[in-house]
Amino acid sequence: MVKYVPLILSFMLLFGCSANQDKKEEITRTKAANQSEIRENEANKTEYSKTEYSGNPQVTDDSSLQKAGDSFWDEKGKLILEDINEVNKTYKIGPIELTILDVKVLHYLPAYNLIDFFHGFTHEAEDFDFIRVQMKIKNTTNEEVYFAPIALLETSSGEKMTWENDFYLEELNGMYSGSEEKIGSMGFPLNNHVHGQEDKAKSNHLEWIKLMTSEVLNKEHKEIAGKKIIEIKF
Questions:
Q1: Which of 43, 110, 190, 233 could join 77 via S-S bond, C-beta 3.0 to 4.6 A?
Q2: CA-CA distance, 27 to 205, in Å (whole number)?
Q3: What is the distance between the alpha carbons of residues 100 and 87, in angstroms, rounded to a whole number?
Q4: What is the pLDDT of residues 81-101, one digit of tens each?
Q5: 94: phi > 0 → left, psi -120 to 50 → alpha, else beta; which?
Q6: Could you tell me the pTM of the whole model?
């Protein structure tokens, strides 16, 4: 029996080395898989940040408001949804793809610390109605272009507003580098629409809005595509 002890020990050592080697290989494979998953998650995170809307610093988030009468409030104020059109339609303006995601008519009661900011847009009203247009804009070329998704907005109640009336200020107007994509919103106050008075609100109910884009300009600021008018009904 004694003469077999070295042989048994050799087998044990060999088995131990083999087991350790298998364990090391498994750890290496696990680490590689984890690193691959991390890289994939980072890639997805980067892509997500390019295409998902992250909200606005001065306006309450309206994403949960899906039917008239829905309301939501946070530290920025309170929003009430008055009307909605889930457009989800893409329009081609030369090399630009403009997707109107949805359009909402909202009533807003901003928090006290934001009232002064909105006074510059709303004739010093404490609360007001506005149109919010959420959109995605993509430059389909490799060349930089210049574009404004809403240069002019007109309503069925007779109001006309330019991009200068937008209080979301999300920098959707201007230069788009090659293949660049932006997602965001523009908001326009409705000074003619009286909230809370049924007869006036009914007479001022929006039947439609018209959005007019700017021309698309190349890097030499020469026109490569004309303006487009988009009508959205409620």
A1: 110
A2: 66
A3: 6
A4: 999 999 999 999 999 999 999
A5: left
A6: 0.74
